[in-house]
Amino acid sequence: MFETVIQKIGAGLLSPVFQVGFSGEARFYWLYTLCGLALAYAVLSRAGRGAEFSRILFDRATWLSKSARNDYWLLFINPVIAAFAISWLLVQLPAFGKAIAGWLHAAGFGAGIDDPWADVAVGLALTFALFVVNDFLRWFVHYLLHRVPVLWEFHKVHHSAEVLNFATARRFHPVEALLTSATTTLGAVVVNGLFIGFFGDRLTVFTLAGANVLWVLFNMAGGVMRHSPFWISFGPRLERWFVSPAMHHIHHSNDPAHYDTNFGGSLAIWDEMFKTRVAAGTPIRSYGIGEETADFRSLSALYFRPFRLAGRRLRGA
Prior knowledge:
The protein has 14 helices and two strands. By secondary structure, the protein is mainly alpha-helical. It starts with a helix and ends with a helix.
């Protein structure tokens, strides 16, 4: 028992290092970071501001501010918490997918596919479905985190960041991480269960670096830069379909006019459909949640203040 606890703590602490070096599922995987920095340099150079690249990249406030240091603490502490609180749940959910496939097989579906080209077509469809469902569920959970008052108290942790750096991408309260992980994992389980039930279990998801190829391509195209000090806009036409780093900067803006906008992760179509999209305009100068930002500048406040505020809302309700 004691050895298991130590192993989970060790695995949690090493998780960020592993994700940077080896996991294509992590948004700050080294390949995405390099591609994002190259994109930032290209954008600034094209605008005749190439000299700003080094100044922004090595700005002390970006990497050494109190807000940034809190990001680093959460980056290493949260995986340890997840190893105990989330791992059990993620092990249980796949059983639901097997049940879905079993029901469909019992109904006469899932005889299998003999044509190799059909195998490729179904694999592509599964890859696309997993990506789109994951992206929508992330949008939906994000929307609820803003619109449901009790959930917003936990999501404030993410929005209390006063500077954006790559580690801000993992600045989440464990309650939010649990909700998001459970929802997206359940979505993937259902999609896999349906595809196995209808087409058999000889399915292949197209991957690169161990992640869905569409996820990889979107992150190579600037996904990692959403939480970075670089303002990168894709232009009004592309931003009707795809979330640019600048659009996510707007989402983190300290200006109340920008609150509850641009919830999307990779695709902007959900914000377009539900009228929550705001196109990139001028660079954001201040991030946070107004005067309450100052209440989240300690590590203890980041972990415990949301419970206290959520409890008040529940008692008030």
